[in-house]
Write a structure and sequence with these properties.
Layout lengths: L5 H20 L5 H17 L3 H11 L3 H15 L9 H12 L4 H5 L7 H19 L8 H5 L2 H5 L2 H24 L7 H7 L7 H9 L4 H8 L4 H4 L17 H7 L3 H9 L13 H6 L6 H16 L4 E6 L2 E4 L13 H9 L3 E3 L10 H34 L5 H14 L2 H11 L1 H11 L8 H9 L3 H11 L4 H13 L4 H5 L18 H9 L15 H7 L4 H6 L13 H12 L6 H6 L6 H13 L1 H10 L20
Parallel strand pairs: 1-3
Antiparallel strand pairs: 1-2
Length: 643
């Protein structure tokens, strides 16, 4: 059983859901926009005075590329919520007070605001868990000096720190319990039963064991040691966080796609709960998080069992179509297997989802929700302002916005496919190919996806992957996925180099996520710097993106900067890097020496230096006077590196 840390078990859900909410609705402040306007206004004022003086003043007042970029960056930076905002104290305190005043969790569940369901659910679950853990005798006591040593903790409110401390104290007990139980799992059933004879479990402890993959036969024996009142109680699961509501053990069994456990619990009088129009066990089964064909089969089997026992799933109808689940769960983004969808529809096992919630929130909760809505509206306005500022900056530099880049790629994707599409993108600019490949990396499925997933989710990842690489001929897509594990586990390199019937990876994009330290660790262990993908792509893209100061490794190893058929080559990267940094890239001269002829994409990048970085352009001509470009050459409209 894996022991998640406090941060994984308690904070990860908070941070992930809040950031997802913020990214959908947030944005910048007014300051940078007005600052840019003030700079430009001062130029206009200056030009109305003495002509010669005004010219000098105007030139001095016009913001540089770096100054404009700094304003854009600061705009987005100022819009990022602080850690203290993650807990949404107003709503959290309102929910705590309402629970303490006796309002049931189930009733509060029906007050969820449709426009912010996930955040409300998260705060409600946090408040309920805190209340329950206090009632179980756990305290929120903790050393404040420990909190002050942690920058994240010290940024939180006292209420949030209390909630984290009570979770931590409860977690210590659970892990002690699981450590004591773990050695007993190796015993046969008779011995195991004897060893747990005096044991008494809470519903939360039982669910924790079920979620950690304890064998069914052992779980069946442990279930006998959950007292009758606890069997039907709402479990407080210490090592599991979710905004999805679970009301009893059977709800978790449905989520786990565990039909045998559902049948066993039914024999004990415990069946899944359903709040009509909001959520039931079928929704929970569809929210099962693992991936793979086996899970489709298990999901279908679980759904069939639930339908046969009278359960139905809510069906939401919108202008854009239909999806399973109510607004409570944000399931419109959920990918439900065709087999499961067809079965549910053929059995008419659906009913209309609730669109308006019957219970009105009390005054305190409503005030907290209204305040949150106001903050969200302000964030939306900030985001719009920052985006305008960013688009203005790109336009000033003659660069396309992300929306324009995506539009061009989508237009070409509608006309071409396969290598014809790559050729079309390459003609527009090699950087479009890189953006397209990065955007679509991971979309393809390899022939051995399930074996790879099982190996990567196992306890001994290196051993499992080593065995797979030596026994199975992976295709190019699967080989790309192994690259990601190679970053995490450099000790896999020997198995990588000796893999069965090796093929080139579909893409090297996985390596672009490696830190300079990880790349260095791979190189030091003998990773082949001449590695290419099936399209001839080389490692220059990876190093220029993540470790530009290490590009010299490739040059020293005489890796051809121009070996790739698609995407930017070494010179494209060097010129774009020079432009972005306002400093001639150190390896430019060596890359130029390997260049047999200049291509249109190279000329466009040199033209960019000529127009926006004239000093760098002159330095480039000092290296090679033949690089001089005509005035009618248009600068490139997209860069091969991120600024």
């Amino acid at each position: 059983m894996v022991k998640p840390t406090l941060w994984i078990s308690f904070l990860s859900l908070i941070v992930v859901v809040f950031l997802a909410w913020w990214l959908m609705h947030s944005a910048p402040v007014v300051g940078p926009q007005s600052a840019m306007s003030e700079i430009e206004t001062s130029v206009e004022a200056a030009t109305s005075s003495n002509a010669s003086v005004a010219k000098d003043v105007a030139q001095a007042a016009v913001p540089t590329i770096e100054e404009r970029r700094a304003l854009v960056s600061q705009c987005w930076q100022d819009s990022i919520p602080q850690p203290s905002d993650f807990g949404n104290d107003e709503l959290l305190v309102a929910l705590l007070n309402t629970l303490d005043n006796g309002t049931p969790y189930e009733l509060l569940l029906q007050q969820v605001p449709a426009e912010d369901a996930a955040n409300y659910q998260m705060q409600l679950m946090r408040a309920w868990r805190y209340q329950q853990l206090l009632a179980m005798g756990y305290t929120d006591d903790g050393a404040d000096d420990t909190d002050s040593d942690n920058a994240y903790l010290s940024s939180l409110s006292e209420q949030q720190r209390k909630m984290m401390r009570v979770e931590d104290n409860a977690g210590k007990d659970y892990y002690q319990f699981s450590d004591q139980l773990k050695p007993l799992l190796a015993l046969d059933d008779a011995q195991f039963s004897a060893q747990i004879a005096e044991m008494s479990l809470t519903s939360g402890q039982f669910v924790s064991l079920m979620l950690n993959g304890i064998p069914y036969n052992k779980l069946a024996l442990l279930l006998e040691h959950v007292p009758a009142p606890a069997l039907s109680s709402q479990p407080v699961v210490v090592n599991f966080s979710s905004s999805t509501p679970f009301m009893n053990i059977a709800d978790y069994a449905a989520y786990e796609l565990d039909v045998p456990m559902l049948k066993l619990l039914a024999e004990h009088g415990v069946t899944p709960t359903q709040t009509d129009g909001l959520i039931g066990p079928i929704e929970r089964a569809l929210l099962h998080r693992r991936m793979g064909k086996d899970d489709i089969q298990n999901t279908l089997a679980t759904v069939q069992y639930l339908v046969e026992n009278g359960y139905k799933v809510a069906l939401t109808t919108t202008e854009n179509g239909q999806y399973f689940g109510s607004g409570l769960l944000n399931m419109q983004w959920l990918n439900v297997a065709d087999e499961v969808t067809d079965y549910l529809l053929s059995q008419q096992a659906t009913y209309p989802a609730m669109t308006t919630f019957p219970v009105e929130a009390n005054t305190e909760i409503k005030a907290a929700l209204d305040a949150q809505a106001d903050r969200m509206a302000a964030l939306v306005k900030q985001r719009e302002q920052c985006q305008q500022l960013a688009d203005q900056q790109l336009d000033t530099e003659g660069l396309l916005s992300p929306a324009q880049v995506n539009g061009l790629i989508n237009d070409l994707s509608a006309k071409y496919q396969g290598e014809a599409l790559l050729d079309a993108l390459q003609t527009e600019d090699p950087a479009f190919v890189a953006i397209y490949q990065q955007r679509n990396w991971g979309a393809s499925r390899g022939a051995h996806e399930k074996q790879l997933r099982d190996a990567m989710l196992g306890t001994f990842v290196v051993n499992s992957l080593t065995e797979l690489l030596q026994s199975t001929a992976l295709d190019s897509v699967d080989t790309s996925i192994v690259l990601m594990q190679l970053i995490r586990n450099p000790e896999l390199l020997e198995a990588w180099n000796s893999r069965l019937q090796p093929v080139l990876p579909e893409s090297l994009a996985a390596l672009s996520y490696a830190t300079p330290e990880k790349l260095q660790a791979l190189v030091e262990q003998g990773f082949d710097l001449h590695q290419q993908d099936v399209h001839g792509g080389n490692l220059y893209s990876v190093f220029f993106s993540n470790a530009p100061d290490k590009v010299q490794w490739l040059l020293t190893e005489q890796v051809d900067p121009f070996s790739n058929r698609y995407g930017p080559d070494g010179l494209d990267y060097a010129l774009d890097k020079s432009y972005a940094d306002n400093q001639l890239f150190e390896g430019t001269k060596q890359i130029l020496q390997a260049c047999l002829s200049l291509e249109p994409n190279h000329l466009r990048r040199i033209a960019r230096l000529k127009k926006f970085r004239p000093e760098l352009y002159q330095q480039l001509l000092t290296l090679d006077p033949t690089l001089k470009v005509a005035d009618d050459i248009t600068p490139n409209v997209v860069l091969s590196i991120n600024m």
